[in-house]
Model the fold of this input.
Amino acid sequence: MNLHLWIPPAVLWTFGAIVALLVVATGVVAAMRRGDGGDRHAELAARVKSWWVLVVVFAIAISFRRSVAIAFFAVLSFLALKEYFSLIPTRRADRGVLFWAYLAVPLQYVWVGMHWYNLFLIFIPVWAFLWIAMLMVIRGETKDFLRAAGTIHWGLMTMVFGLSHLAYLLVLPDGKAIPAHGAALLLFVVLLTELNDVAQYVWGKTLGRRKVIEKVSPKKTLEGLIGGALTTMFLAYFLAPYLTPLTRGDSIAVGLMIGIGGFLGDVTISAVKRDIGVKDSGSMIPGHGGILDRIDSLLFTGPLFFHFMAFFYF
Amino acid sequence: MAYLLRLFFYGVLVRTVVLFVLGLNVRHRERLPVKGPAILAANHNSHLDAMALISLLPLRLLPRVRPVAAADYFLTNKLLAWFALDVVGIVPLNRVRADAREDVLAPIATALERGDILIFFPEGSRGEPEQLAEFKTGLARIAERRPDVPVVPVFTHGLGKALPKGKWLIVPFFVDIFVGEPLRFECDRAAYMQRFRETMQALANEEKHSDWT
Done:
């Protein structure tokens, strides 16, 4: 059997390294649980187990065909948007409007697949924005109009527009002289974002003292933020030569950007959840919560990394 | 042949809609019955209610699973009646007695006799989306007749938003499904309904759900 992978060897090796990391993490957690007895680390174990599933699903999704990888992000956007629309208070009058909002998901990813850059950039900020407002006005319900219009569009901007930047990385290098591969760029930003989450958590747990944004997320500390961002800069510096065309200096800048952007995405979704009054956005990923709990950081780092690359390299 | 169609309907179509287009948040799944006879008694806001509840049970139980549905609604024309009886597999129930001696609960008793798992909506009709209506005492009458059959209260939220009464277009929403401890009949219908109501209210209170207006 001959597997036709479209990803370059560097991506394959990186996946190999991720699996090795998970093996180590699984071993460490098993040792911790044996040391403590009891169920003190049950959630940590569930989390690592879910990481295995997420890594395998992600690897399969991006390895075989570019179109499959783009479709994977369309499904992810759909699930995230659905989770968001199910969490926020919506008006009964807007049921049909929400259906139109969902239609923006396949359309946005069709523009990605067509490499239609201009429409990809303006479709949701301009066309969907105006179209949704028009539909809502025609229905004529004015009570809470602004809240409803604002929350629906906020969902489209983050869960569809924001996330679709990750998919657009896959078509970026086409027709350019720069030796880069879309899947490698994508893996670079996703891997660093997730490692940044883990690093911020670990630094915060071990050294964290000073609260950094207590009203939104009481567990976040300055030590976690700085330690995590430095770790991510360090990782970016070493990973960039394998996966990206970034210069040494730029890779450090990108590491810092992902470190801070990941933190901001995380606390932004925390603020949303606090506003609504829930702890987790759902229960799809054991130990993590819902889809939003896992992709929160990517909502910021995806567009930031994409536009850094688009501006300086493509 | 009809069973193959039913298997395709529930195994492919319904599960795609319920598990992918909608998506379920199930709590206390372990309280669901693993064999018949049993009754799942849920609040009713949408045609999707029965579909979601049936998707909770493994496909191998499908030959045993039947929603109890209003004969006056589903058996009005031949095509709908065929679909309701042979594909959906409903147990038809007359909501109004034809004459004073008719035993309207007889089809339910027969189904339980066969060992079926019934999906039952004590509110009787779908009502306003995401609001609990008065539970009718039919449930207590069935429980009184078959006190050995466990009745599992199930609270659902979100299906009335996805497909409310009078609409045909499904709009995706995640659905909460909270399963309660099985109830058993003791001696008094009113007390039984009171326990059922309290269980449903307690399940509803497990999560904050804003009204849908």
